[in-house]
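Tutorial, part two.
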Amino acid sequence: MPDPLATPGEASGCYDLLVVGGGINGAGVARDAAGRGLRTLLCEQHDLAAHTSSGSTKLIHGGLRYLEFYDFKLVRKSLREREIVLTSAPHICWPLRFVLPHDQHLRPAWMIRAGLFLYDHLARRRVLPGSQGVRLRKHPAGQPLDARYKWGFVYSDCWVDDARLVILTAKDAAEHGATVLPRTRCSKLVRNSDRWRATLTRTDGGTLEVDARSVVNATGPWVDRFLDEATPLPARHHPRQVKGSHIVVPRLFTHEFAYIFQGADGRIVFAIPYEGDYTLIGTTEMDYEGDLANPTIAEREVEYLVAMANRYFSSDLSRQDVAWTFAALRPLLADPKDRATSVTRDYVLDVDTQGAPLVSIYGGKLTTYRKLAEDVMDRLAPQLGCAAAHWTAGAPLPGGDMPDADFAGFLASLETRYPWLPPALRRRYARLYGTRVERLLQGATALAGLGEEVLPGLHSREIDYLRDEEWAVDAEDILYRRTKLGLHVPRDGAARLDAWLAAHPVRP
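Running the prediction step on this input gives:
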């Protein structure tokens, strides 16, 4: 992918919109703006999806537990967006049936039934089946549970590869004309009467100054710090940083259902099939005051999640079973006295139009990123003289343009067209790249055509694609955000890949 900072003039002149922050909200805004014909620049101080947007529970969901706090508006909006995301990216998002074992000592059954009824009917379902009660002793999902759980409930939500959702959204923005600059920090903004002058600083020390008629602050956990440090506008709100942590353990069950567990403290924890060989367990919710760029799981969080799993599963999970952990921050607007679990996950837009406009985004859910972006651009477009209508609701993301959003049919067609691909590799490519697998495999007629196998299952052809098409630079980008191969390669895999990347630099 061309580097605009390496070629003077490609990222110069005046943009209609500068988006600061390359998480899901920033990528979504850049995509929406570029598709409306606005000249758009997106910059991110680290890699795309490097922080909150790759540290989620990997769900596109309505937020069943938000009903307890009477946040019906957010649930309805989330449920509507759930199927939009599902159909726009069927390769990275798919339906998942969740099992809620009933614990008679916690939420009463009538409350759960009422909540699920609302969940089924607050927004129209086109694809996902509704909820039902189940006898766990006769249901496949009951087998790995402790014998005291006799019955429960089943409902639908969706799983998503969160980091790839960001990458593909940013890629769609670029294909609609946006300039996307990872590893480029907006270090200063100066406001003039009708535009902003932005100083962009890259991690290698290169700098660039650009003008923009408007700015969107989508910096997530840094939203207030960015205003205080880089702009003449002190932050009017200071979000509460809430850390959510997850553990990944060897697979605890073989079926394709997921679980939602109730804790005695009122929290809920998910246990989700993950990467074939693993189970993902999370999340926690803790106030956080450390380094925004490097939140890590605390030992007490590990203990909490292990204990929650052991409360429900018949297996005896231990700390030594934890194969991987990750943590991320959610910047939420809330009273510090409120419990972290009760704080709304909906977004708030702070719009400053005293001169060239600036919109700062507070909060938000992965599920509602598209609607958030649409709302931002509906605010900005009239001020920029843009009359283009909404467009993203019916538009697939790169690789998602499958007939009827039918992933199974698409995968079957790949077997016919590429019989030489090993089944596991074929499925992995289909899941990651969707219809873009044609670009990845172009010209290859045998496994040898994919180049050197740098790590098990990772060939040089794929590495080159990720560097050329998806802004990947180092092993972490490739193994943990663009793919999840980091869980499957040898312990020294990242070091070996970084060494290979250094020995095979990208051609100018």
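The domain at 403-503 is CATH 1.10.8.870 (Helicase, Ruva Protein; domain 3). In part three we will examine how such features are distributed along the chain.
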